[in-house]
Amino acid sequence: MSADTQQRVTRAPMSAGFNRLWTSAIASNLADGIGRTAVPLIATTLTRDPALIAGLSAVTFLPWLLFGIPAGMLLDRVDRRIAMAVANTLRFAVAALLAVLVSTDSLTIWLLYGCVLLFGMGETVFDNATTTVVPSLVTRDQLDRANGRMQSAEIVVQNFIATPIAGFLFAAAIALPVWLTGGGFLIAGLLALTIPAAAAGAYRKGAAAQAAQAAQSADGVAADTRPPFRAVVSFLVHHRFLRTMIILTSLTASALAFAQGSVVLLLLQTFSVPAALIGVVTAGVGVGALIGALIASRLVERFGRGPVMFCSMLVCGIGMFCVGVTANVVVAIVAYAVGAFGVAVWNVPWGALRQAIVPNDMLGRAMGIVRTIGWGLTPIATVLGGFIARIDLRLPFVIGGAVVLALTLIAVRLLLSAGSHEPAHETTTEGTGS
Q: Model-level pTM?
């Protein structure tokens, strides 16, 4: 591809369909950001035990272990737009229940655990659907840009809008951020219904193929044309690069979860940050993540996918490790922002690779498997980090950052080889029209 052609591809606008998906994701991210700040703060009014606080974070990821694969199977069999709407309607109902419990002073830490688990069940469907829909609405050479836009929106909305608002609302009335969380979920679900039919994904193709086969068959009945679940598993197992990268990302995610499970208590107790300013601190950390998401695709274009993925993982480990070794709140926030920058840069090329390599008719189930494996150890790691935090709230960051650095050095050849798996410069089979 010539420089002029590459420049034209880079400047090509995203489809109207992608922009509608992006709008729905923004509304859902607003709800997520408010909820993820409000829930830990609510928990601190019920307990100050680091292990129980970390356990709450663990429960956030537990649905991916229990329901990630079933959610992926669902998304390859139904209209993904409908699935997104139903999932967020469920989350709206849970938020309303939680708000009532808070308002009536009936909430316990165990009921809060239950609400978080139900939130997570809806998330497995909505977030998985969002990821699987993207390749249906953009060309393959736009995948890095599309993932960068999605992640940038997530970071801006959650860290610079939702999280600071949640902190101040919590200080005013505990139930206020919960009600806003529910409202955001409901709006996002309704917006999902406006996404073009291309987003229906394998369901749409499978239904059309079965109708054509049924019309030609003697009895008018056609078999399901989608690849069976065992074929999806076989694809992931026998694709050496994907298989090894899934293991690497699983271990890295566990190390980061180990470090961050008790971060709210770290800010409140070790660094004496007022509860109302927790959102402001999180926004400061989000600056690093936002910069990473905005420039990730440019970095891939200039330096190549492999070097960018290696350096981003290295930077992530360094940032997390430094949070644990400093006693200065400003240095800790800056180091945390550096780590967040690394994570954001990593997510863009890794997300594009998965979407480009995995066929669309098995993408929902494949992403369910990938996230189940990738986040399967996260609840365990988060709880272990909470128990370690009982010794010192900074110690999990020291250990987690050191593990990420060790994994980076061990996997250097694997990471640098990512450039050989570049997305093909072609239009996806679903098209980009609205």
A: 0.68
Burial of 218 (0-12, 13-18, 19+ CB in 10 A): exposed
Contacts for 346 with CB less than 8 Å, ≥ 6 apart: 309, 312, 313, 316
The pLDDT assigned to 135 comes to 82
Which 3-state string (H, E, C) describes 170-212? HHHCCCHHHHHHHHHHHHHHHHHCCCCHHHHCHHHHHHHHHHH
Q: Give the C-alpha separation, 58 to 77, whole Å.
A: 29
**Residue 266: partners with Cβ closer than 8 Å, 6 or more residues away:** 389, 393, 394, 397
Q: What integer pLDDT is reported at residue 400 of this predicted model?
A: 95
Q: What does the pLDDT look like over 180-219, one tens digit per residue?
A: 889 999 999 998 888 887 666 555 554 444 444 444 444 5
Question: Which percentage of the chain shows pLDDT scores above 90?
Answer: 28
Confidence at residue 204, expressed as pLDDT on a 0 to 100 scale:
52
- CATH code matching the domain that covers 14-211+227-421, chosen among 1.20.1250.20, 3.40.50.300, 3.20.20.80, 3.40.50.720: 1.20.1250.20
Instruction: Give the model's pLDDT for residue 411.
Output: 95
For residue 262, pLDDT beyond 70: yes
What the block records as the tokens of 357 is 């390599």
Those residues whose C-beta lies under 8 Å from the C-beta of residue 314, and which sit 6 or more positions away, are 342, 405, 408
